[in-house]
Amino acid sequence: MKVAIIGGGPAGLYAAILLKKQRPSADITVYERNRADDTFGFGVVFSDATLDNFEKHDLPSYRRITQEFAYWDDIAVHFRGTVHRVGGNGFCGCSRQKLLLILQERARELGVVLHFEVDIDDESRFADADLILLADGVNSRFREKYAEHFQPEVDLRANKFAWMGSTRPLDAFTFIFQETEWGPFIAHAYQYEAGHSTWIFETDPQTFERAGLTGLNETQSAARMAEIFGWFLDGHRLLTNRSMWRNFPMIRSKRWVKDNMVLLGDAKASAHFSIGSGTKLAMEDAIALADAMAKAPDITAALDVYEHGRREEVEKTQHAADVSLVWFEHVDRFWDFDPVQFAFGVMTRSKAITYDNLKLRAPDFVAEVEKSFAQQVRSNGFDIDIDKPMVPLFQPFRLREMEVANRAVMSPMCMYSAKEGVPGDFHLVHYGSRAIGGAGLIFTEMTCVSRDARITPGCAGLWNDEQETSWRRIVDFVHGNSAAKICLQLGHAGRKGATKLMWDGIDRPLDEGGWDVVSASPLPYFPDSQVPRELDRAGMNAVRDSFVAAAERGERCGFDMLELHCAHGYLLASFISPLTNARTDEYGGSLENRLRFPLEIFEALRAVWPKHKPMSVRISATDWADGGITGDDAVAIARAFAEAGVDLVDVSTGQTVRDAQPVYGRMFQTPFSDQVRNEARVATMCVGNITTADQANTILAAGRADLVALGRPHLVDPFFTMKAAAWYGANEAFCPPQYLPGKDQIFRNSIRDRQDLEELRIKAKPKTRAELRSEATKPLAAE
């Protein structure tokens, strides 16, 4: 077999090593445009898990690499005169040049032919090759040459960054967040060998301009950074090596394979430096390709296995990198945070680390986080323990005069089980059991303000006396048997009305028995959906009056809170989104105009809803579609509602148009809550694939939301919150007297179960290489 590899970076060299090990007789040649000892950048960083992978696949190169590494366990966060160190992370750094020389030496040992200072721009010279690896880096000419086939997407990020080095020794992966007269600067720094450390400087484009960095050369830029971070550099100089300021390109390619050519490393996909995964991804690409070549019957099959088997892991890493880089791009949102909360946000920014696993590795740090959160709660008038505080999920919260005992919320979820809008026994059990189960706040499903406002024939409503009586029965039960508060969510389906029950075909139009639907504009949801009638002024008045009448009924029922549904493509959302609002009158066009009718409804509700009771609004913070609502729009929307008197923004996303492309994942909507809360400066509730109390604690402690709504966990477990209270020892959690023996037992059992699980996790966690090295260098105790 003949293999040509274009690009002598980590991906190309490691692939050559692994393929040559598999097939000693293969003719494998690497072509690199630079000299053998050229390198751009300073150090590379790997986790212990990545090194484990290297050890498994090529022991000789692994041993040489690890002999050259600098190891550390701690991450140090410097912010506003404080430093917080978090241990147990298991990282190691190595000179990029040293890494390349080690891989070159190992490749030669195996018989790989290496050619340097050879610039390849035409693969036809390798017509006789069985396999061509395109590992020519982030600016891959072959990816661009065949762009129509590979379909790359390059997202050039806003922040400016420059890669430099220093002689400053470091004993931790170090983040420095530095305030300047021009704005915030960030340093990401780590030691990669004795006497040398990597420094990546980052700032937003506005600060970059104000600091006068535009047009400066490397030496001048280094001098400016030395001025800003001189207090920490402590006299050590900054080193440059092609250290020009640039924007990071996030690269994704829809295809990785063309004929017998395959993209590897940065040529196919990049990951932001804030999670240190570029070289890791490149070398793990090589591992995945070699594994595929070992298992598949031929090269074509192997490339297919590589592309489809590897893509999920690459995309997961890129998603984590995306979340991380966005945090750094918007660090100004958190600049007024308490420093310990800020440091917690740094640690948990990419969702890879959560509250519970951080508590295992850095219990003292998390104890600080708990105390800081409790102090914030106490400053809002609650008499709580700040010396031995409860976890954030079980801290109280106030909206106007409504106080909730904890921040676990049962999300509004349509049950599609009402008869002519009347909630029945199913609803009594559904809401009553979740309230008894311990949630601080429960939401009704979207309750429709008129018969024609329903989504489906099974939707609950509040437009007549029978419905009011049934809802009052539910509210009375909740208040009489639990400590939960209950919020009434009012909405109008708009163009998504007259559709089938969810389990019969979600959002599909009824075959019979439908009703006329209305919207901001006459645009059907599906091509075969009913075309809605565009609301005129008389229609708007009628809708407004039906909302007001429903709110007045809700007050008579005794609901503690009222929410206006302006999300998910329903009537009011159809006014807000430009994808569903094509009006040319004063209710269309600009965002200000598109918000006009939803705000009219909200203001009319606020006028009749008691002043001591809070109101919230549910919004879609993005339409997940080109030309639709964005996160920045969501901030403006939240501010407009806040000015109208909203107390809480319930941040959801999407469901506006059928061709939306949502990016799902754990806590996938939380970043939008984070943005709205910390830019619009309004309380938020987050929702969306939040499944554990651990995740809820992470979100709250990091300041990404004030309440956490959980949907599906509550569907299968009405006592989700009580179980979480037992797990975290929240003894004050309310329990009906009939259930107290059960509460006592689960609290006793949970103490033991938690201790057992933590002990198992600690025992199962292998010691980091930094810990092992530290132990190996300790002097033996005298006998």
TrEMBL record:
Q: Which CDD domains match?
A: OYE_YqiM_FMN
Transmembrane segment boundaries: none
Q: What InterPro entries does the database record attribute to this sequence?
A: Aldolase_TIM, FAD-bd, FAD/NAD-bd_sf, OxRdtase_FMN_N, YqjM-like
Locate the FAD-binding domain: which residues? Answer: 2-317
Pfam families (alphabetical): FAD_binding_3, Oxidored_FMN
| Source taxon at top rank | Bacteria
Residue ranges constituting the NADH:flavin oxidoreductase/NADH oxidase N-terminal domain according to the UniProt record: 393-725
This chain's protein is named Bifunctional salicylyl-CoA 5-hydroxylase/oxidoreductase
Q: Which organism is this entry from?
A: Bradyrhizobium campsiandrae
